[in-house]
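Input sequence (102 aa), recorded before submission:
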Amino acid sequence: DVFAPLLELEAIAAGSWYVHILAVHPEFRGRGVGSALLSKAEDIARLAGATRIALIVEEANAGALKLYLRDGFEEWTRRPYIPFPESRDQGDWILLKKEIVK
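Predicted structure, token format:
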């Protein structure tokens, strides 16, 4: 049940260049590393002929959500976050997309 919302969002993103995981070690955050990784992913997607790049972020991850929106991603749709045991997070999983300019 925990993964059902993520699988639904991934299915909606079918046909997009999908970024599955993007992470920056805490000591390197705020230095442009996340933006550089997104730029590289977009470059690779563009070279592969993709017209859209997509990713999923947890609403509770405010820093990552801010990064993606600042980079030009926009909300596509969302699904409820289903907590796994011991999780205290709340909110939604958000599917974001960005059209690739050729």
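Checked by second reader. The two ends are 39 Å apart (CA to CA).
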